[in-house]
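Human: For the file, kindly provide a plain-text protein record giving the amino acid sequence and the backbone structure tokens, at your earliest convenience.
Assistant:
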Amino acid sequence: MRNAGLIGLCVVGIMGLTACGERGITDEEVEQAIKDVNVIDETNLTDVMLTVADPNEAVVYFERTIAQNPGRIDLHRGLAQSLVRAKKPTAAATAWEKVLTMPGANSEDRVEYADALIRANEWKKAEAELDKIPPTHETYKRYRLEAMIADSNKEWEKADSFYEIAVGLTTTPSGTLNNWGYSKLSRGDYVGAERLFGEALTYDAGMFTAKNNLVLARAAQRNYDMPVVQMSQIERAQLLYTAALSAIKQGDLNTGKALLDDAIDTHPQHFDAAIRSREALEKQG
């Protein structure tokens, strides 16, 4: 409603300009005023397309608008962002590559290009792009990507350093802490992983992935007790199931059976996966 009111005021202004034509207002000024209204309208629509609109609809919008305004870098950025949202990373990488050839491209555009390349599983190309970014460009996303690259190369010290920097550059580090914890888990640093998953949950208590990873880190230390974290009844059943599978994998069969029974009893509905696992254990004797 606010946008409509603003546009309405502008239209009234244009009508006023037209009415004043005999008092020295030129046709060029009227045309510019109309163009200003279109810019306001387009800016509002672009914001909607980048946030709440269906990603595929946003892609179509930006492609159509770029065809009419091929030199506008903001529209090319919008297309690239929309392709990422639409889970089309290869096309998104191509779009970001185009952005980097345009006047006005900056280091943040290169960070976004590297992000799209990682999503497209082009890790080496992403690393090469990050290497082109000057060290003075210190942003959360840049260091989060640097950490992921270091992880993929098994450069653990660099990964830890980059993760630590990234966490310090955001007020919402739960996802990065979870990734860092998973990195520690994959290296066998179960104590470090447990600490990081727990820290992630202090920022986002509802993050089930971190809860599940926390259970995995504790189970790797043969601690199968449920952590003291916020969880629903269904989540508790699923976490018990995760602990049960970990116990069975490590040869703690009796503990695994008991945890499966707890998972089945805890789940408010039929827990088919846990029941099948329990039956499979029984058949093995």
